[in-house]
Design brief:
The protein has a 6-stranded mixed beta sheet. It has helices at about 30-35, 70-80, and strands at about 5, 15, 20-25, 55-60, 85-90, 105. The chain has about 110 residues and is α/β, with parallel strands linked by helices. The structure holds FE2/S2 (inorganic) cluster. FE2/S2 (inorganic) cluster (FES) binds next to loops.
């Protein structure tokens, strides 16, 4: 059973990251919800989509529910996670009702040389 991070959020969407359930409001990004509630997800660029520190590994059954990555996100993911189709940037995924129950793992921050 996951731990639970929540404010009293009406019309909330719940997603689970590293076994911790997080309540979010529609339109909020995964990164923003994690930061608001103290759940663990890193950022260097503060959600501008340029650092890759917020990478998450999306459970395969949810991949088709996500919009495809935009050009800059796809380019960064291709650089940081070449050939991995389940990684996305937590700062670029906006939550909506279709993603209620989304399951993720935070991808450890690594430095490519
Ligand atoms: S927080 Fe930097 S890419 Fe998402």
């Amino acid at each position: 059973m996951p731990d639970f991070c929540a404010g009293d959020v009406l019309d909330s969407i719940t997603f689970v990251i590293d076994g911790v359930a997080v309540a979010a409001t529609p339109g909020e990004s995964i990164l923003a919800a994690c930061q608001r509630l103290g759940a663990k997800l890193q950022t260097v660029c503060k959600g501008r989509g340029i650092c890759g520190a917020c990478r998450v590994d999306v459970a395969p059954e949810f991949l088709d529910l996500l919009p495809p990555p935009e050009k800059n996100e796809a380019r960064l993911l291709n650089y940081l996670s070449p050939g991995v189709t389940t990684h996305r940037l937590g700062c670029q995924i906006k939550l909506d009702e279709t993603l209620d129950g989304l399951r993720l793992r935070a991808v450890p921050l690594t430095v490519r040389t």
